[in-house]
């Protein structure tokens, strides 16, 4: 039905990621070069092998790093310069929950970002209870995070980020090292959440549900497309590379 199509387009068109000729250098060495990516898709995937620049791209998108060249706009905003807008716009989940978690108890960890967003203590407490209830974990309120498993720590990070109601959630390989049931459970929670996703991974299976994909190779976007065309091509190339005996790429 064309009306639904138009309505869907209008709903997604109001949120856009625009990267123009983005570059990032460390000590004169390019990590990302000439990255141009425009998308209003609800679930965007970025696939690339180890060292292709994925985590750097995630941090740039979240406004945690400043580009050394080009321009990034998320919803028209420069999130590196406008930290307040960044807090309200983008959440990020990292590979390792230990890099994200600061506080000893679950409720404190979830409340932290909310207080930064400007909620007072009572408002944050209400939001913490609500998110714990939504994930069926009210009994985790005072739980010491150090006693949780790796998968449970990932879930705490996810709850803390989603409690802030980001418009865009960036996933930087958050499922690495988790078993299949845990990955599937976390993925199900995420897909229920009312947020756009930008999922970064070297694992094609993580990205099958994306609407639009970008292939990052040696700091450049080398292909763009839907999962059914791009993921088989990526997998074939990874197998081809894996069959070579050349480890030069791992030398850094
Ligand atoms: N601050 C930095 N200092 C030195 N080198 C860096 C820095 N940040 C990134 N790099 C280099 O840039 C390249 C891309 O790193 P990045 O972590 O973004 O890749 P990645 O695709 O996320 O890799 P992986 O999948 O292995 O996590 C690597 O060669 C890395 O060593």
Automatic annotation (TrEMBL):
- What is the name of this protein? Biotin transport system ATP-binding protein
- Which UniProt keywords are present, listed alphabetically? ATP-binding, Nucleotide-binding, Transport
Q: Which InterPro entries match?
A: AAA+_ATPase, ABC_transporter-like_ATP-bd, ABC_transpr_CbiO/EcfA_su, ECF_ABC_transporter_ATP-bd, P-loop_NTPase
Q: Does the keyword Transport apply?
A: yes
| Similarity comment text for this entry | Belongs to the ABC transporter superfamily.
GO CC, one annotated term: ATP-binding cassette (ABC) transporter complex
- Listed SUPFAM superfamilies: P-loop containing nucleoside triphosphate hydrolases
Question: Nucleotide-binding: is it a keyword of this entry?
Answer: yes
Query: What's the superkingdom here?
Result: Bacteria
* Domain ABC transporter: from-to ranges: 17-243
GO MF annotation, one: ATP binding
Pfam family, any one = ABC_tran
User: What parts of the sequence cross the membrane?
Assistant: none
């Amino acid at each position: 039905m064309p009306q639904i199509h138009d309505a869907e387009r209008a709903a997604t068109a109001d949120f856009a990621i625009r990267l123009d000729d983005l570059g990032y250098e460390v000590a004169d060495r390019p990590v990302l070069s000439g990255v141009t990516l425009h998308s209003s898709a609800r679930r965007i995937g970025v696939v690339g092998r180890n060292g292709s620049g994925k985590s750097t791209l995630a941090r740039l998108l979240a406004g945690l790093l400043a580009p050394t060249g080009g321009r990034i706009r998320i919803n028209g905003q420069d999130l590196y310069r406008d930290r307040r807008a960044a807090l309200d716009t983008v959440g990020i989940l990292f590979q390792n929950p230990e890099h994200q978690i600061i506080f000893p108890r679950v409720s404190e960890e979830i409340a932290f970002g909310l207080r930064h967003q400007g909620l007072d203590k009572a408002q944050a407490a209400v939001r913490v209870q609500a998110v714990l209830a939504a994930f069926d974990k009210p009994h985790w309120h005072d739980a010491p995070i150090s006693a949780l498993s790796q998968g449970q720590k990932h879930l705490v990070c996810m709850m803390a980020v989603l409690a802030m109601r980001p418009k865009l959630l960036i996933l930087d390989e958050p499922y690495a090292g988790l078993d299949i049931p845990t990955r599937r459970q976390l993925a199900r929670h995420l897909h229920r959440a009312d947020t756009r996703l930008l999922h970064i991974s070297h694992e094609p299976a993580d990205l099958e549900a994306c609407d639009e994909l970008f292939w990052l190779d040696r700091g450049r976007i080398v292909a763009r497309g839907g999962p059914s065309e791009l993921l088989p091509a990526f997998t074939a190339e990874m197998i081809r590379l894996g069959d070579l005996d050349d480890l030069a790429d791992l030398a850094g």
